[in-house]
Amino acid sequence: QQFASMGDVFTKMSDRTGASVEALSELAYAAEQSGASVETLEKGMRKAQQNITDAANGGKTAQAALAAIGLQAKDLANLSPDQQFKLIAEGIARITDPAKRTTAAMDLLGRSGAELLPMMRGGAKGIEELQAQARDLGLTMRGEDAQAATLLGDTMDDLWKVVRMGVFTVGSALAPLLTSLVKEI
Question: How many helices (H) and strands (E) does the chain have?
């Protein structure tokens, strides 16, 4: 069950963010080591992607948020979501004023930005060091393994649905007899 659940989390997170399972499992380790959750990481990544798209489409607010950390949408356009996240972290880490750093993080990553600040403290290099630590510890999940876990979880869910329906069917067959028995008692 743990295998199925963990794989399912990263498979679906990969589907929602476009980042690979491998990268997400390593970034999740980095986030958790920094006091943030996997959910916070995902929300921040999705908000960053939304801002990148908005900036590329001419959105002035998103363009200003990227400019505040020295980036433009074109700097991020051909990068994977995890690479985009690290480049944004690099820009945020360069801001020396704590208030401006927090504002920039929240402007680009939404409410998750403030929670992800400890992870971004060392910029891209700090995140990559935590990712390397995850690899050294054997914590990088392979995409194929995550998909196998998702399939197992879905199959187990189907089995439990069939079992519950079987119990319901037996119960419905016994209901008249049990109702009669209860009335007599």
Answer: 10, 0
Q: Are 18 and 80 in contact (CB under 8 A)?
A: yes
Residue found under tokens 């049990």? 178
- pTM for this predicted structure: 0.77
Task: Tell me the two tokens of residue 163.
Answer: 């079992």
| Distance separating alpha carbons of residues 71 and 53, to the nearest angstrom | 13
What's the mean pLDDT when you consider all of the chain?
Answer: 89
The residue count of the chain comes to 185
Instruction: Please spell the DSSP secondary structure of 154-175, one letter per residue.
Output: HHHHHHHHHHHHHHHHHHHHHH
Whether residue 178 contacts residue 32, with contact meaning beta carbons closer than 8 Å, is answered with: no
Residue listed under structure tokens 């197992």: 152
Q: Which tokens sit at 117?
A: 């600040």
Residues 55 and 158: their CA atoms lie apart, in Å, by 43
Total Cβ atoms within 10 A of residue 144: 10
For residue 62, give both structure tokens: 């998103």
**132 has pLDDT over 80:** yes
144 with 79: CB under 8 angstroms? no
- The pLDDT of residue 84: 96
Here the tokens at position 65 are 């948020």
CA angle 85, 30, 124 (to 5 degrees): 40
Q: What letter would DSSP give residue 35? A: T
